[in-house]
Amino acid sequence: MVRSNNYALQHKILQAPHHYVTVIKSKYEDNSTPERIEHMPTPTTKDLTLLTPSDLAADFDTDLTTGLTTNAAAKRRQEDGPNQLTAAKKPSLWRQIGHHLSDITSLILLFAVALSAYLALTTDSDWTKTIVIGSIVILNVAIALYQEHSAEKALAALKAMTVQTVTVVREGKTQTIAAADLVRGDLMLLKAGDAVAADARLIHSQDLETDEAVLTGESSAVAKSAAPLTEVPDDLGDAVNRLFSGTAITSGKASAIVTATGMQTELGKIASLLNQTQKQATPLAKRLNALGKRLSLVAILGGALTMLLSMLYHQETLTESLMLGVSLAIAAVPETLPVIVTLSLAHGVQKMAKRHAIIRQVTAVETIGNVNVIASDKTGTLTQNQMTVTHFWPFREALQKVTDQPLSTNQQQFLTYLGLATNARLTKQGEPDIGDATELAIVRLLAHYGLNRDDLETRYPRIAESPFSSDKKTMATLHKTPDGHFLAIIKGAADRIAFSNDHWHEEATAIHDQMTAQALRVLAAGYQQFENDPGADWETQLTAVQPSGLIGLIDPPRPEVPAAIQAAKDAGIITVMITGDHLVTATAIAKDIGILDHGQRAITGHDLSQMSDEALAADILQIRVFARTTPTDKIRIVKAWQQQQAVVAMTGDGVNDAPALKAADAGIAMGITGTDVAKNAADMVLTDDNFATIIDAVAQGRTVYQNILKAVEFLISVNFAQIFTMLIAVLVGWGAIMTPEQLLIVNVLADGIPGFFLSRELAEPGIMRLKPIPKKASIFTSGLGKRVAVRTTTYVGLILGVYALGRFGLSANQPIVGMTMLFLTLAIGSMLDIFPIKTRGRLNRAAFTVNPILTGSLLGTITLILLLATVAPLQQVFRLAPLNLGQWLIVLAVIWLPMLVVEGYKRRQHRDELAAWQQSELIGGAE
Ligand code: ATP
């Protein structure tokens, strides 16, 4: 807690009409009404807004220039703990168990337990059924808990990979620390794009604006300034000299003293509400949940129908009929499917992380697999962001290549001016250089010719700077000249500088075109002299800029990008380039890497601004390059594609990219060059900023989606087969041809356990040759519905036939023999055809070896089934009879039939698709 010794002030705070309204808003809830709560500031806290910086520093025992000492910081870290919001308390184990027991499947099973217990108590039947079904309930819940726990652990480990860092000054040294290590009194340095990691009071600020929507619900930027206030502000929004944890710096820079960390921050005070943010289900998971609910309804209705039929038709007792009804309900519910979905998603997230794509929203795993348009930034994502100046053109001279020739005076002056308007800095060997790639290229050029930025700045001290922005595409600095005058220098995109020279335009255009045609980025530089200090609005006076010259920089494409773009094309995905660079430069690179083909268009941000939304939506299919754009153009591009029903992935790194990242179906932020703001707005963060990583992520996303569909196909058709078989059996008067225990063994063990490992299936050959799945496609499209129907029919016919043969054909009306043969055929047969289901291509040897854990689990469960059918005590428990050799031979012969039918049908159905699935090598390598 902040120490307070100003009682008058404290009194004032207690009197003040505090009425802080807080709005919780998260990416998930963008379309919903934000939740409002009202909360009061801690009344004993001295109001920090009124203090002068030095009083504040005294209060927090820190120094305004050197910050805390390392020891003081360590001591406070120990006293206050890490600067983290305490995670929401996990529900207790009992609550989790309760949650699992309250779902429809468990309720049906629990009803069966109660019913069999009642039967055991009131009739002469024993407790076996109660114990077996009870054990399956426990096993089912235990598996669900375990799998959920491991999925959660995997996701938590991922979270730790995206640690936020903060720049602080400690012991006079500027350093980067983990946000968790920030303590009260730390001197933080902040710039546009940074997320604010703790509450703080500003000490200095320059053109500072923040986005405080998270706390106040105010969506427009809030202008901040360091000056002490004269009155206690009424609410957080008015506390303009304070910064709040969870908000973001949208422009300018600042230094500030940390006043509260962790749960003591304003965000911490409402953290319990933040913790309640609902987990989001993916669209596929939502559709599967809906399917699960419908199946449960079928289960209950089917169960009731069977019960009625058996009572009216066969005059069974109420309890017997009830038990039959329950068995059918059990048969119809795919008990393990929800856990398989969670597992597949978690597995996909982990695999993507290993390949440099960190998923921030689990829903993105699925979305990224379905994208059909990727709108990518050029610099750093498609190109290497390793800029080098290859050419320079001092105005009125010839175009020069960078060589070892010494510079003329004119050339030297040009480079001097360029260097003065640059912020990058070369550091000592071994340490990374500081600055963006364009500017580093400039200071390296200077160094090549023996010029040093520090020397230049001593001669021409900088007195003001107007920083570079992607909107302006220029940067300007104001200097004092050695003779006491003033010199403004501006550098940036040539078309954004107001040059005042009659000859410049014509000459420069020719040189500019020559360089851009070679895919070079071109920067112009110019200057304007002032007799006297032009004052604070000096930049607006830059209307008569004298040209200095042009430079051309090369930024080669990343070597893996052309292949990735081709892979995207094969996968039915269009890649679009969005860049701030010049149209000709962008076009040249786009052609080189395969983005821009014959008949496709490249336009500029200006062209875009001339197009109506309708015209853009109509033309968007042909446009592959958007040059000289500003970040706000990105939103229009996303929306135009979305109007064409596209699923759009959009990359971004800057603060201004955040809205487009949110608007895109999959927002992708750059991990290296990206700002905190962009990362927080994104669904996925690339730790290597590489376009090729997006294509890898698409393959992984598609694999997850396919694996879930495979699990659906594998499990649901057996459920359907069980329902129809039971209904038909009751109708023809055979009664219950499977017991609830047997049904559960098939669903939970025989199919359930191998089914889990479907989530670990690798990407199949050809996964990137499929067309993306449309946004609203049903899960039963692309043949899945038909395959489920064929498999269901096969099982219904086969197991009814086997049952009839066992009961009537081979013995004189022995239901238990029929039941045993049916059980073995269904349990083992439905396991074997996992292979044709999991292999979308032609079944081959690899299908049995690529996912050894699945094959292993299958062998394990087959052994278990055989034990149930052969070990006498187990036979009794599960109502199975010993079979003779002939009966065994029949079972062993027919268990292969479903596999053959599924494989045969698949080959017929997908003659063309199969070829595609076969074409490429396995993606993903071994587990
Ligand atoms: P992309 O959108 O492909 O990632 P980018 O983000 O690098 O490209 P911008 O940074 O907006 O695009 O740059 C656009 C133009 O601004 C460049 O073509 C160049 O003329 C100019 N420019 C870039 N960096 C600077 C800088 N540091 N100072 C002045 N001008 C610059």
From TrEMBL:
Residues making up the signal peptide according to the UniProt record: none
One annotated GO biological process: intracellular potassium ion homeostasis
Cross-referenced Pfam families: Cation_ATPase_C, Cation_ATPase_N, E1-E2_ATPase, Hydrolase
A GO cellular-component term linked to this record: plasma membrane
Database matches in InterPro entries: ATPase_P-typ_cation-transptr_C, ATPase_P-typ_cation-transptr_N, ATPase_P-typ_cyto_dom_N, ATPase_P-typ_P_site, ATPase_P-typ_TM_dom_sf, ATPase_P-typ_transduc_dom_A_sf, ATPase_P-type_domA, Cation_transp_ATPase_P-type
NCBIfam families, per the entry: ATPase_P-type
Name of the protein described by the UniProt record: Calcium-transporting ATPase 1
Lineage, uppermost ranks: Bacteria, Bacillati, Bacillota, Bacilli, Lactobacillales
